[in-house]
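Page 47, continued from p. 46.
Same chain as before, 249 aa.
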Amino acid sequence: MMRLSFAVAVGAVTMAAAAAVAQPAPQQPPPLTNLQLYPKDTPRPQLIATMQGFVQALGVQAAGGCGYCHAGTAPAFDFASDAKPAKTVARKMILMAREITGKLPEITGKTAAEVTGLRCATCHRGVAIPKLLPDILTETATKSGTTAAVQQYRELRTKYYGGQSYDFSENALVAMATPLINGNKPDEAMTWMQLNLEFYPKSSATHAALGQAYAKKNDTQNAIKSLEKAVELDPNNQNAKRQLEQMKR
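Result:
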């Protein structure tokens, strides 16, 4: 009986060893090729982490991730191919960022270790085309009207609020309204200020800008009312105080 057990055990070990030998070796990923801006011996995990950083910086996860610049489709991207123009643009942008970063010590008088290097996220902030919010809204308002631009603001705020892509702070729309007031477009400016008050009802700067817009329309009563509210909310708002004094003369 013991001999039989020993024979079975030996047979099992032999079969396991044979199975282990028969298993194919893990398939190795193809070597990295066409690395024009990185050393050819760059470790694969390091390069992948760098590429993933680009995807995050440009916010293109939903637009295909790697496929934003690379040819092919997941999971079979052709990383070596230069077929997509976006990849060529990306290379030029990387070189530009390196060049600017290299000049910063001379410009700022700081050491290379002290300066803040330029990276994709420095400008892109999670969007592929890094336009400022006022520029986006102004372009939409010019093409499609203020109502469409207001709707666009709401959509962008819903999608990006809390991130770094756009400035949704209290003063962002105030800065947008100011040139409209100076350009004799008080009604458009008032639309933006009323929108701003939905999110920042206690914004002294917004009420002050609203007062300026009313003044442009020769609506003295509402101009004074808005400026008084601005001063009430922020007694240190000297511009609103000065404008209020002028309106009451």
